[in-house]
Specification:
The protein is mainly alpha-helical. Helix content is 66%, strand content 8%. The chain has one domain (38-152): Winged helix-like DNA-binding domain superfamily/Winged helix DNA-binding domain (Arc Repressor Mutant, subunit A), CATH 1.10.10.10.
């Protein structure tokens, strides 16, 4: 092994591996729970949440990709699947012939409104209830710092 590599200490490696395991298990559990209780994938849920976060339920395609931090091609494929299921629609942008909006449908709104309470119960059971208020505040601060570090990276 190269001596120029800043290898992780035992404590750093243990913390890192625990974090990775947490991320993987939590993602898997939340996705399975969404699928079981609502028939939504994690990707469906993420898009529907982003659309319900705006008053009129419509977001420019490019803005949605930036909001959820997805590549346009991934979003395009996911939106196409959701259109087939009646959860969202695509509307051309009248003022910009090249742009398009992703719009939540009545069916999509109904599905997310049914799924959200069950999802919150799962998040509370798996994460919130496992932490003290101080732990939760620390988790928020730590997550924020890591996100800032990631966002500061070039490219």
């Amino acid at each position: 092994m190269s001596n120029n590599v800043p290898w992780l200490s035992d404590d750093e490696e243990r913390s890192w591996r625990t974090f990775i395991q947490l991320h993987q298990k939590l993602s898997r559990q939340l996705t399975a729970d969404l699928q079981t209780h609502s028939g939504l994938s994690g990707a469906d849920f993420e898009i529907l949440v982003a659309l319900t976060d705006v008053t009129d339920g419509r977001v420019r395609f490019q803005d949605l990709a930036e909001e959820i931090d997805w590549e346009r091609s991934r979003l395009s494929h996911q939106v196409a699947r959701m259109i087939k299921r009646g959860l969202v629609a695509r509307e051309e942008c009248a003022e910009d012939g090249r742009g398009a909006f992703v719009v939540i449908t009545a069916q999509g709104r109904e599905v997310i409104e049914a799924a959200a309470p069950k999802h919150v119960v799962t998040v509370r059971r798996l994460v919130i209830d496992a932490l003290s208020p101080d732990d939760l505040a620390a988790l928020g601060r730590i997550s924020g710092r890591i996100l800032e570090q990631i966002d500061a990276e070039p490219g």
